[in-house]
Amino acid sequence: MLSNYTFIGIFVVVAIAFPIISLALAYFIRPKKPNAVKSTIYECGLETIGETWVQFRVQYYIYALVFVVFDVETIFLYPWAVAYDKLGIFALVEMFIFLVILLGGLVYAWRKGALEWV
């Protein structure tokens, strides 16, 4: 039984050690030549003119959140579709209810105007 957890322990140690070793190695072998040009603000290759703080509309964030919700929906649909043959009619009804709830959310967002790009 303990040998089953040995592989998990090795995986955790490697998963923690690999990024630490990679970042430390990159820190020590990188070129260190700081100058004023490298320290300047860079945005799209142009010098900034005026105030650089710009407020974005909340609608863009709502649009992104709706996209994330339906992206997560795809994550839940994929394993269900792969195991569809083994699940039976109960899982079909559950997935239908899940899709109806998501469709209701889509209709709500559409009627509120969250999906219109202005």
Describe the overall structure.
- The chain is mainly α and 118 residues long.
- The protein has one domain (2-112): NADH:ubiquinone/plastoquinone oxidoreductase, chain 3 (Methane Monooxygenase Hydroxylase, Chain G, domain 1, Up-down Bundle).
- The protein has four helices and no strands.
- Helix 2 packs antiparallel against helix 4.
- The longest helix is centred in the N-terminal third of the chain and has 28 residues, at 2-29.
- The N and C termini lie far apart (59 Å).
| Structure annotation, total helices | 4
Helical amount among residues, as a percent range?
A: 55-70%
How many individual β-strands?
Answer: 0
The secondary structure category is mainly alpha
CATH class descriptor name: Mainly Alpha
CATH architecture: Up-down Bundle
Strand fraction = under 5%
Distance between the termini: 59 Å
What's the Cα radius of gyration? 25 Å
What do we call the CATH topology? Answer: Methane Monooxygenase Hydroxylase, Chain G, domain 1
Largest sheet: none
Shape: flat
The H-level CATH homologous superfamily, spelled out, is NADH:ubiquinone/plastoquinone oxidoreductase, chain 3
The overall pLDDT average reads 83
Poorly predicted runs: none
Tell me the number of structural domains. Answer: 1
SSE run: HHHH
